[in-house]
Amino acid sequence: MEVMIEDLQYEDIEECYNLNKLIFNEEYGLEEVKDLYLKIHNNRDTYRFLVAKWDGKIVGYTSVIMAYNLFDGKKPFMTLWWVGTHPEYRHKGIATKLFKRIEEIAIENECELIYFTSEENNYGAHEFYQKLGYNMHSDKAFVKMLI
Domains, the chain, ranges and CATH? Predict the structure, then answer.
């Protein structure tokens, strides 16, 4: 079966929303997600939401955000948020293809680096990221939830 990586389409939001609940056990209002999609989906130079489809079914996704830091260079950096693959579809090359597309977008946009965090005890994912050439730095990510 061929895995297709593409930008999320409006008609696929609910399916992806349900996948997010399954993987991360987090839930936001579906209508709010749809409204936000309409607000940001055309900002392709700063934001992409990619999905992996297996036989037409969404089985993986990630948010890709590109931004600039005013003081340390002329090139943008990329950060990823919520990289996930359906539990029944893991170890089938889906995340590898997703990361291949992520890196293509980073190169197309002349990003100097890709940055993301991972749960501290997610050892399987850490090993996977390292196989793809990502280095785990000793820097710690600090997050403060405001809502």
Answer: 3-131 (3.40.630.30)
